Amino acid sequence: MTAALWVLLWLLSQQQNTSATIQGMVVRAGTTQPLSGEVVGLWPTTRTTLAGFDGTFSFRDVEPGQYMLTVVRDGMKLQVPVNHIRTQPTPTVLLEVKSAPAITGTVFFPSGERAAAVRVQAFGTVYTPLGTRLTSVMSVATDDLGDFRLFWLRHGEYRVSASYSDRDQRVALPGLHLTPNLSKPDDGLPPIYYPGEYTLFQSQKIGLSRDTDSTGVQIFLRDGPRYTINLILVPEGVCARVAVVAEGAIVTSTDFVNNVCGSARLTGLSQGTYFILAANDVLASDAVRVSTVNINTEAKVVLQPAVSISGRVTSNIPGAGRGGPGGRGFPGIGVPLPGGRGAPPGSRPDPKVRLSRNSLEISQEFESPIAADGTFTIPGLGPGSYDVSVQSVPDNVYVRSITYGPFDSLFTPININNGTPVNQLNLDLAQSNAIAAGTVVDRAGRPVPGAEVVLVPKGNRRRADRYRATTADAGGNFRIAGTPPMDYAVLAFENIEPQSYFVFGYDDAAYNRHTAAAQTLPALMSNPEFRLVAIPAEETAGGIH
Amino acid sequence: MLLLMLMLVQSLVLIPMGIAFQGPTSTGVIGTGVIEGYVIRARTEPASPLVDARLDLNNSLIARTDSSGRFVFSGLPPGRYRLRVTKDGFVRQQYPHSAMDAPGTPIDLAAGQQIRNVVFKLERAPTIAGVVRDQSNSVVAGVVVQAMRRGFNARGNRIVTLIASTRTDDRGSYRLYFLDPGEYVIAALPEASPNQPAVRPNGPTYYPGFAEMGDATVVRMDTRDGNGIDIRLVQHDPTLVWGNTISVTSGSAVAAQISLIAAEDSGGVGQYQAQSRLPGGEYSIRGVAAGTYIFSAKTATESFATRITVRPPTPFRTPDLRVNAELNPGVDVPGRAVLKSDAAIDIRRARVQLGETQLSLPDPEPAAVAQDGKFVFRAVQPGVYALDVSDLPGDLYLKAAVQAGADVLEKLIPVGWGPQNMRGPLDIQIGTDGGRITGAVFNRDNTPSAGALITLVPEGDARLRPDRYRIELSGPDGSFTLRGVVPGDYRLFGWDNLEPNAHFNVDFMRSYLELGTPVRIQPGQSASVSLRLIEFDR
Q: Which residues contact B378 (CB under 8 A, 6 or more apart)?
């Protein structure tokens, strides 16, 4: 959630405040509804205080001077000037937090009528250490007026699409009940990318600023040239469930809706690149990439026996058998240890082992929960290459090693293919008590609230869970607990896009440039008194390079 | 835009995603029949056509209206067709009747027959919109809001049916659109957020801000939108439901699978599961939201079900509810259906059913009737049941049913566990001399009323017997025939529009009794009746 903040100063005479106190209330803009639990900073000091449940906060014993009351929310920094004069009663400062910006607009049918229950998606850039991916970051459906609202987006650039089909209606409204008076789309219409293109990459980007909605985005659906893919399943005559997804998609089990035996013609496709996957109870395929170059394109999808990968997760974490609140969780892992995000106990989902297809064009994940003895099994895997990770572990736990049979798979994806033997997958987790903490300042030595602090691994930089990052609070202070045991370069940025530091995974020049003079955190060492100089926002406009 | 297609279904599979799959071969049978007509906006003068309305024959053949509102299906082989129409923003219909959800009459199309005068007049489907806030008046995003329409089930009990649901956006606002006209209860269901350690989370709330559905303000919708239906969430102290599961046969505790499912007439959506454990058979379910539930406990061989109401805790009411389950294997209720007739009539397709009457618990499985007329209801849970026999062919009807010498048609059938509660088999007599009622229904201007709903409603104690009721549609010439009518006294009604199953509800019918035509049927008798259409004001 991003927020923009502007101050209304008004005098409060009935309160007897000491003139050494600054006090105020955080509210939602345009209302008197308090926002609770925000951290408020007093820039250029590093002091912070926590606003209460009723939104009120105060700073005591403040010297007269010019300050900025600061709130950091979702990495966005909001600053409001306060002129604190001792001789006058302290005014109560009202910090009005605006709603995060949204992209809004309307979708129309070819007839000109407003189109209800059309799936509208915002595509944004997602960074990984292997490259960037344009992927759907939010999906909503239009209402009866054809209107949509893509909300809670961070500022940045997005592409917007509208798609009208039976599947789109189901996917856009998961778990919700559609009125029986909605007409079925049948053949539907091809996806249209704002303002009216048939493909994602030709579409026009919509810029979203920090505090203003981007309104009036109109998309006119229309029919378009349709292409056909002649799909052939191998071995001949085999029957399987087939998923056909566009690039940038996230493949889930609900995509495998089409039952095909032997062959089928996929008609009515719009232009673009698709990925076809097939699976039945015993066989599975790789993700086959097909581009609609000609009106008719052939695609062969080969099914092989699906592979089940089993293994064991071990750890050296003390307190074996503690388990989680439900009594589950294998030794020492099930309990969310302190140092996490402050979520109440039991709120973290159970840890899982995840295999993700190693691809920048589509995303497909397979997960397995971990039994109390650390074992897991992931069935139904088709040929391909997969990255291995563990999800939902506490912040100070890291993956020490991953072995797939004789292969080290920490930095190398595992390969599954006919003919290659299936191995045991073993993961070893460990706990780290190393801490990196301190303050981020600008070149003039003043704190930088909301700065992004990143620990960039100095060794192999291609594993996302080796990076550690956090956002400095409203006083410019930060704390990262549980750094894995490797050497790190410690960097601070005034303002970068989320996770854009993953560019160091594949851009060596950027990495060398930024880390040449950077402070370091040696493996297993703690340093609670970092004083980092933030790289100004202007130098990272358009990305880290 | 002209979008007119006719797709023959054989191996064509519509793939969600706007892509069509076609198998290796695609052949269809072609005939020469035609069904065509128009779709227009109701109550417009001159008629305003609806473009791109979707016509659907038997869920497989699709056509859409053109710019003049016209549709056509051609090349139809002879057969039975159900014709439905939908158009975004309007209430769906099934030919020939204009009431939503009315049973449509299929069209029996002869070879080469051409039906050219079908007209659908569609009514606007309204929208309910509003904002959801919490106790501090802040808007709340991501809350599921449901529109639940009040109606009746086939037993005449009042129920709510979920018509549409949606989520609030970041401004807390929602729109539930394209709704059927009727009476609604609007419910907001905030999801428990693990990151908000509030002591009293927001719970299911009924418009405008009540924890119990019975207190909700009913929203009446016709064709106009309802805006400003704002809901203020209430905080719930969730209740602990706990107890023990005991087997009646062994007298000791058992480990059972327990579930709580919101009752059909409660409008709730909660579902909870638990397992009771030995040695004491204890179970506990935390965090149960207020509402009415069907509680059931099952082992492999025994089960137990009851209806519980969880009230929102108050300072004077403790937040826990004890429910002990006495599991039993159920009782087999045998019976025999006897038919006195010279001709051999096959009644094996008849459905013999027991309906639970006290707690609205799920009904036991219908019993199949064997060649010799014997049937048995297996593993019936203790309760009080009504007998219903339906799907009897021709002029057959349920004449009498007796158990242990006592009539069980006007009275109910108690089923209890244990040898002292065994009451012997059900003896059902099927009568062959059911009556017949023929007739026609007319509009105010004396023209025949096609597609009107004809309901036959029994008088007196017979109102409790579902087998006595009939509902039919009048044909194109306004005529109708009811067969197998159980001899007795009735009132006959012809409606242009009727809330589905409302005629089963005695309270509902009370205000309309005077509008019905009394009919008395003797065994084997035919009666002929002429009806005036009852029109509902819009």
A: B330, B332, B364, B365, B367
Cα(A470)–Cα(A499) distance, rounded to whole angstroms?
A: 10
Higher-confidence residue of B10 and B433: namely B433
A16 pLDDT band, cuts 50/70/90, is: very low
- Greatest CA span in chain B, whole angstroms? 77
**Mean pLDDT along residues A133-145:** 89
Nearest by CB to A258, which of B21, B176, B178? B21
Average pLDDT, chain B: 83
Say which residue the tokens 């639970």 belong to.
B356
Is some CB atom of chain A closer than 8 A to the CB atom of B131? no
Task: Give the bridge partners for B521, in sequence order.
Answer: B488
Q: Is B199 on the interface with A (CB under 8 A)?
A: no
Mutation for A interface: B11, B12, B61, B88, most A CBs within 10 A: B88
Q: Each residue of B292-336: pLDDT tens digit?
A: 888 999 998 888 888 888 887 677 767 788 999 989 888 888 998
Q: Smallest Cβ distance to B127: which of A31, A144, A149?
A: A144
Task: Look up the pTM and report it.
Answer: 0.78
Phi, psi of B504 (to 5 degrees): -80, -15
- Amino acid symbol at A206: I
A523, A525, A529, A533 alpha-carbon torsion, rounded to 10°: -10
Is B233:B145 a contact under the CB 8 Å cutoff?
Answer: no
Beta bridge mates, B344:
none
Instruction: Calculate how close chain B gets to A203, using CA atoms only, in Å.
Output: 20
Distance from CA of A205 to the nearest CA of B (A): 23
- pLDDT band at B422; cut points 50, 70, 90: confident
Position A12 scores a pLDDT of: 41
CA angle A46, A52, A58 (to 5 degrees): 45
Residue B104 CB coordination number (10 Å): 17
CB contact under 8 A, B16 and A187: no
Tell me: pLDDT of B1 over 50.
no
Using a CB-CB distance cutoff of 8 angstroms, which residues of chain B are in contact with residue A181?
A: 86, 88-92, 125, 178-180
Q: How far is B308 from chain A (nearest CA, A)?
A: 26
SS3 B122: strand
Residue with tokens 């297609």: B5
Query: What is the distance, to the nearest Å, from the Cα of residue A448 to the centroid of all Cα atoms in its chain?
Result: 24
DSSP A254: G
Q: A311 with A366: CB under 8 angstroms?
A: no
Largest pairwise CA distance in chain A? 89
Angle A425-A431-A435 (CA atoms, 0-180°, nearest 5)?
140
**Sequential DSSP letters for A460-488:** ----GGG-EEEE--TTSEEEEE---SS-E
> Whose structure tokens read 């592979």?
A307
Test A264 with B22 for CB contact under 8 angstroms. yes
**Would the CA dihedral through A28, A32, A38, A44 be positive or negative?**
positive
* Tokens, residue B132: 């959801």
For residue B305, the surrounding DSSP H or E stretch is strand B303-310
Q: What are A49-99's pLDDT values in tens digits?
A: 998 878 889 888 888 888 888 888 765 667 788 777 766 666 788 787 777
Q: Which residues of B55-80 are buried (b: 16+ CB within 10 A; e: fewer)?
A: bbbeeebbbbbbeebebebeebeebe
Confidence of residue B147 (pLDDT cuts 50, 70, 90): very high
CA distance B386 to A80: 73
- pLDDT, residue B245, reads 93
CB atoms closer than 10 angstroms to residue B163: 22
Neighbours of A494 (CB within 10 A): 20
Other CB atoms closer than 10 Å to residue B209's CB: what's the count?
Answer: 17
B187 Ramachandran zone, left/alpha/beta (phi>0; psi -120 to 50): beta
